[in-house]
Known about the structure:
Number of domains: 2
Distance between the termini: 34 Å
Structural class: alpha+beta
CATH class of the largest domain: Alpha Beta
Bound molecules: ligand PPE
Largest sheet: 9 strands, mixed
Order of helices and strands: EEHEEEHHEEHEHEEEEHEHEEEHE
Radius of gyration: 19 Å
Amino acid sequence: MTIAKTPWIWFNGELVPWEEAKVHVFTHALHYGSSVFEGMRAYDTPRGPAILGLEPHVRRLLNSCKLYRMPVPYTLDQLCEAILTTVRANGHRACYIRPLVFRGFDTFALDPRSCPVEVVIGTIEWGRYLGAEAIEQGVDVGISSWRRMAPNTFPAMAKIGGQYINSQIITMEAHDHGYVEGIALDANGYVSEGSGENVFVVYEGVLYTPPLAASILAGVTRRFVITLARDLGYEMREQFIPREMLYIADEVFLTGTAAEITPVRSIDRIPIGNGGRGPVTQRLQEAFFAIVSGEAEDRHGWLTYVNETVA
Length: 311
Ligand code: PPE
């Protein structure tokens, strides 16, 4: 999927034309993965574009930078404002937003702290992440032969560029095996997450998702789905999940900004539940899409209306 050009990219405090948003080949991040990023979506609503989870995403960005000892020259409020400015400038009704903070050009030293910290915000038009039919039909996934990083190797809770090598090898392996996505286990063999999504399981009437200690990214969508599940009266447990529980589950689904709520219909070619979207997944999807489309009341304050929010 090639990204289509947008007119503007926010680069270190100003909007620059797409063609001018460039870096040098000796940019530290290019060599060592020394970057932190976010992904969020603006949804098309009757009141114009609305960003889902703006503050939690920017907070996670700043926390990722804190873990990587990268001081960001902007406050949370300034970054939120810059994101709103970029979405407005590009005139989107709906889009995917990619803020990126990285170490620029100065040295090849592994202590990168003499390199400038650069900040970029780009927006793109992005449809369904795991394919057009995925949301209704579900996807076929495989358990990856690659594990997520072990505790105390990389900070799994941080969304750091270099760590996405793990996601890339998981995804390539999954595609080569004919799967849409791969789910990785943690260092102890418990279920961790998809290459770019958190995992939920419905088993004997209870909803489960792995805890933060299972080397997962603390997904914003994961948090929203936990809230919706409790709103709907489901019992929701954050606990370690053995691999085999996935195969005998009634339902499995993936959550993420890009993947939204995507049902999993098979794992390692074993059909999950009835081999399609299950009823709990569908109810959670309906609740989720009603809020983000502006149809249902935004009772938890998840949306920021781009054209109604002033600096
Ligand atoms: N785990 C990983 C590893 C991950 O990358 C994401 C987001 C999630 C869980 C879900 O987090 P959240 O978006 O806050 O609910 N993955 C991004 C896509 C990665 C990509 O660039 O492709 C995303 O969904 O934006």
